[in-house]
Amino acid sequence: MTTKLMIFDLDGTLVDSLEGIAFSMNQVLKENDFETYPTLKYKEFVGNGIKHLVFRALPEEYKDSESVEKYYSMMIKTYGKHYGAGMNLYPGIAKVLDKITNLGIPLAVNTNKNQDVTDFIVDQYLSKWSFIKVIGSHGDYERKPDPSGALALAKIAGAKPKECIYIGDSEVDIKTAKNAGMKCIVVTWGFRDKNYLLTLNPEIVVDHAKDIINYID
């Protein structure tokens, strides 16, 4: 077996976290008398971390850096209380993680989500499985699609980039895998429309979690 590491994105790939994100940001917007959005609209805002989501959700006249920092701070506090709203593992993910574990292939997480919230989610929803490292957004690594996090995970696993599979649900993940020189599997159950994903010419597309196993070498 040549696959020596499976790296997963978190939101939209392992866990459906959209409701908690939408509820929390809408709370911030509502408290400041700004327009709120339907939950599904937040699919357009996610992918580059919470600060970018805040920037996208704010009214145009509040997109300056000082305002973004202010409302980002509010969002982090609010999301820390409500991140679990409606959250669950996507169908079939548990079985896939079981299978990968049984094959003896290390697991890792690489996300642009705030590190503290990422750790809470992994501890609460993914504690059944062992991950060699969980990399969220903090100062040690550049944000995706920069490959530094993915390459650090490969190094920890003692794997070459070509021996790693990167699994995600967005253009950010596709670019991250490409930048890292890793095989990429893009999933269609997450935060991006399948037709849009296909325009990016992804290497591998899967509609069901169980199909991930078919691409392990």
Automatic annotation (TrEMBL):
<dbReference type="InterPro" id="IPR041492">
    <property type="entry name" value="HAD_2"/>
</dbReference>
<dbReference type="InterPro" id="IPR006439">
    <property type="entry name" value="HAD-SF_hydro_IA"/>
</dbReference>
<dbReference type="Pfam" id="PF13419">
    <property type="entry name" value="HAD_2"/>
</dbReference>
<dbReference type="InterPro" id="IPR023198">
    <property type="entry name" value="PGP-like_dom2"/>
</dbReference>
<dbReference type="GO" id="GO:0006281">
    <property type="term" value="P:DNA repair"/>
</dbReference>
<dbReference type="InterPro" id="IPR023214">
    <property type="entry name" value="HAD_sf"/>
</dbReference>
<protein>
    <submittedName>
        <fullName>Phosphoglycolate phosphatase</fullName>
    </submittedName>
</protein>
<dbReference type="InterPro" id="IPR036412">
    <property type="entry name" value="HAD-like_sf"/>
</dbReference>
<dbReference type="InterPro" id="IPR050155">
    <property type="entry name" value="HAD-like_hydrolase_sf"/>
</dbReference>
<dbReference type="GO" id="GO:0008967">
    <property type="term" value="F:phosphoglycolate phosphatase activity"/>
</dbReference>
<dbReference type="GO" id="GO:0005829">
    <property type="term" value="C:cytosol"/>
</dbReference>
